[in-house]
Amino acid sequence: MKLSIRKINAIFQLKIQSIFTNMSVMVAPILAIGFVLIMKLSMPKMVATGAFLLGFGVLFNAIMGGIMMGSYPLAEEKEKNTLRVLMTSSVNGAEFIIGSILPSILIIFIINIILVPVAGIPINKIEWPIYLIYTTLSGLISILIGYIVGIYSKNQMQAGNLSMPILLIFTMTPMFQMINKTVAHIASFTYSGTIIDFINDMLLKGYSLNFKNIAILSVWTIAGIVFFIYAYTKHGLDSE
Amino acid sequence: MTQPDIITVEHISKYFKNQDALKDLSFSIKSGEIFGLLGPSGAGKTTTIKILTGQLKQTNGSASVLGVPIEEINESIYEQIGIVSHNSGLYDKLSVYKNLEIFTRILNVPKARINKILKQVGLLSDRKKIAGKLSQGMRQRLILARAVLHQPKVLFLDEPTSGLDPSTQIEIHRLIMELRDNGTAVFLTTHNMEEADKLCDHLALLNDGKIVETGTPRDIRLRHNKKKQYKVLLKNNQELTLTQSEETTQKINWWMTSNELVTIHSCEPTLETVFIEVTGRKLI
Q1: Into which CATH architecture does domain B1-80+152-225+269-284 fall?
Q2: CB contact under 8 A, B87 and A240
Q3: Predicted ipTM of the assembly
Q4: Is pLDDT of B284 > 80?
Q5: Beta carbons of B244 and B57 less than 8 angstroms apart
């Protein structure tokens, strides 16, 4: 499959325009900043620690936002019959996916940076390269999950119904971790659990390289790519 | 000089689970020609377009578009073809201009072409309008503009005027004929026999997935003009339908000489009549 930079750029610009004209995709990133700000101002400092606020914000932005940014726009393109138009206008699946993922990743990346000062964390407390790699990778995994949902959805309503349970499971990981040790142990193997563990370690204990975190994120990334390719090759982006 | 075939279809069949959608279709289309596939809803018109544009695989037979066998069609051929289907979508939240601008980038077309094509489809003054707020006729004209933005060699039109008002239909017909005159091969599906009669250089009547009649619209009508009849209106308001005969010739001659004849029309069948005669069903 050939890749055309011109066509990827065209899809990228289309998606940027779509984001600015359809703010529903931006709900999760905007809510991430809004909630962190509200919680910081309204909750006792003992509870709303920097780690808690940043973890909450990143989950909202990278996990919830990523899944929504993957599933809804793809389902909307199918629902409005514009995906078929793109595909019969010489854009191939890979060009569409790359051009569509880039704006979402960019938004997740920028919001993850903004969340640090919003959560009231000094900039020098963040292990920036690792923080950005981990959170962006989580965003990518979420977007891929979103795309898999989008592939199996015919319209936005179906995408919403399919993505909601997935989205809740991963976004509410920290709450599940509070239930008991067994659930906490299982949750630590999810990519969202890994992000929370990483943020807590970084801000509460001081970061040291954690191979378990790297292995879990790597496995989730590979699994995300493999399942996405499977869904794509089996059903295509817009199969009948 | 004879134009080369742009589309060739040989014995194409398509079976769905429990239905024969297309049965042994064969035809060819040259550049600068409008070929019409005329048939009622469910006859297999859209299935044919989907097969020819690589969106659906045929069960049997072979076909090629621009010399490329349809099994080998990939995205590169879409740079040379345009498609208007009855469910072609638009980016409703973007303006008319932006809707075309996206495709100038994808298809590597100069932006200057946008205003030119918008002028042709009568949407230049509406270029800043949001696509979602356009009327159905304006939407269809925008979809057509997008399909011909890159001056395709082949244009597939699936019921392009279905549900549109007569003035928009006329505008779209004018555009299609302009494209034909500029050398584009147009594959048109319709269930509107007047549209087929007016636009098509060649057409095939499709019923239950099978071509039941083919030729130029005139040839088809004349082939089925078995009872040659003439409808005349005389000065005394008398309206008569006369069958071709020696006597009829003499009568018409007399009325013309004596200036009694107001109107005279031949009564060859319409395409719809032919369709009903051949298939026993209406074009709905």
Answers
A1: 3-Layer(aba) Sandwich (3.40)
A2: no
A3: 0.88
A4: no
A5: no
